[in-house]
Each structure stands twice: as C-alpha cells, then as structure tokens.
Amino acid sequence: MKTLITCGLVLVALMFVAARAFGGGMTDTRSSGRTPAAVVVGSGPLTEKNFWDLIDHSAALEANPDAQLADLRASLSGLSASQIADFERMFDESMRRSYSWDLWGAAFLANGGASDDGFEYFRCWLISKGRTVFHKVLASPDNLANLLAPGSAGDFEFEEFAYVAREAWQAKTGRDWSDMPVIANMAYDKQPSGETFSEDPADLANRYPKLWKRFGRW
Length: 218
Fold this sequence. Notes:
The chain is mainly alpha-helical. It has eleven helices and no strands.
C-alpha cells in the first residue's frame, strides 16, 4: 500500500512539472491552483481593471495554453460587442506600450533571437501572464529572469492570444473582425522606444546581467 501511495505521489509531481514547463515556465505567484471566481463586468465601458482582471483569470490556467484561451474566450463571449472592442483597444495599447528596444533585447536573449514577428508574439505572451508580471517586466526587462521558473527554456511566445478578442467580436456581431471600430486606429511607432540593444555578448551581459546568467549562449 505504501509503495502504491508513493508511486502515485511521484506521478502527480511529474505531471505538475511537465505542466509548468508546457505553460511557459512562469513562477507561480498564486496561492491556489484553482481557477478564481468569474470576473463580474458591468454594463458600461470596459475599464482597465476589467481588462487585467479578465487576463489574470485566464492566467490561472497558463500551464495549458489551450485552456487559457478557452477561459478568456468564454469570458469575452459574455461581454457586449463594444466591451470586446474596449478589450481589443486596451490589448493593443499594451502591445504598443511594450514596444521598446529594452524589452526586445530581453526577448532576444531569452528566446535565443527575436525577429519582428517573434518580438510581437513575445509581447502577447507577456501580456497573457497578467497584470503583475507585465508591469514588473516592463519596468525592468531583466526582471524576466526572476519570474521564469528554474530550468524553463524555449520560445516564450503566444501568438494565438492576439486573436481571441477579434474572434469573440466576430462571433458576437457576425461581421469580420477588421470592421471592429478600434482596428482603424491601430498604428505602431516606426521604431521601438528607447535605446537600441546590441547583439554583442559583452553588451548583452552588461545590459541584462540576470538574463545573461540564465540564457547567455556565447
């Protein structure tokens, strides 16, 4: 009996480790593995708090990207078309706000390279991790090293996260997502903000000491 119990506990532990790795390797800052109560949104315009509450709710399922997308999709389906458009606008604002050379360099180092598209998908991934992680990394991109679970590696990207609100709006209205009112106003700066990063190993190690310690390959 004791042998069976021990084997069961080992199996559960291995499943947990595998799930954490599949979910992008973020250190779990939540006190419980259970999905929090559904987010209650009023009938008025979506607020920034509502926006992050919805993402934080889905991030409780980050170990399974498909489950996280399903959770956010379900939350958005209960909103009005205008509220979904508000969500898309705030998502786009977060994408533009994070369009900086400093963050791009961190993505380049963590992912072993980052093209234009790769950096876009990295920012989707970062937003999907929720309000606290997003703001901590935005404040100092080298903080990313402290927020990733030990031993995590791979591509920190989540392209599909960018499409959830568009798909929800399309399902709600029966119209193509390109007709969403906010789409016409989506324009990025031609260049990221801040000082460009150098791919020189010495410069990367100096600019991102914690990330270099974890991901430096040269």
